Each structure stands twice: as C-alpha cells, then as structure tokens.
Amino acid sequence: NSECGARSAKNQQRASAFREGMENIAERFEQQRLEQQKEYEVFVRGWDKQMHQRREAAQAAMAAKRIAEEDRQKSFEIAVAEAAEADRREREQVVQGWEERNRREDAMFAELKAEVCKRAELRAQEAEDVVSAGNRRRHALREELDRMWAELGAQDDELSRALDDKME
Q1: Which residue has the higher pLDDT, 97 or 164?
Q2: What global pTM score does this model have?
Q3: Distance (Å) of CA 89 to CA 25, 81, 84, 96, 97
C-alpha cells in the first residue's frame, strides 16, 4: 500500500513538474513574442523618424527650389510628392510584412501552446490512470485478503468444534 502511495505521489509529482515545465516554455515563448513586439515598435518609431527627416529634407529642398523658377518648383513638388508616396508605399509594405510575420508567429505560438497544454493534460491523465489502477488493485487485494481471513476464521471455528466434540 505504501509503495503504491509512493508511486502515486511520485507520478503526481512528475505530472506536476511536467506541467510546470510546459508552463515555463509557454511563458518563454510569450516573453519572446513581447520582445519581438517591442522591436517592431522601435522599428516603426525609427522608420517614422526617418520619414519625418526625409520630409523635412524634401521641404527644405522645395523652399530652395521655390526661390528658383516656378516651373521647376512645380516639377520638384510633383517629384517630392511621388517620392513621399513611394516612401509611404514602401513603409506600408514593410509594416505589413512585420504584421504578417507577427500574425504567423502568434498563430504558431498558439498552436505550440495548445500542443503543450494537450500533452500536459495527457500526462496528467496518464498519471491519474496509473493511480486509479493502483487503487483498484489495492482494493481487489484487500477484498481477497478479507475473503481469505473469513475462510480461515470459518476453518478455525470448524476445527474448534471438532476438537470440542472429540474432547466430550
């Protein structure tokens, strides 16, 4: 009985340790995802700053060109607007790429987390099944032992009666 109890406790400890390990892995993945999100935000801020500097540089160039002739100014404004539009499209593509990557990583993380939880539950169920099987076996052995004691008691009673009969 104590061996079954010790084995049951050990199995429960293993299941608990495994569950903790899986939770630690899930926490590490979540931490990585948060760090990548921070990197993405820093990148976007840097990109915005760079775009702002580009716009400022373009505006300064436009002011210098405005002093020159008006036709050149209009052509330049058109070129700056096209460059700004090209920069905007380029930024959108980069941001969309980051967002898509984050969505894929989030989906992979969710799948991994689900798999880890599923495995932890299976291990816990296996441990519970082992404990239940041990309890059923112990109960069956207890019933067998009680039956044997009852038989021995009945035999002892018969022998005592037979001995009493012979003594009389």
Answers
A1: 97
A2: 0.35
A3: 38, 12, 9, 10, 12
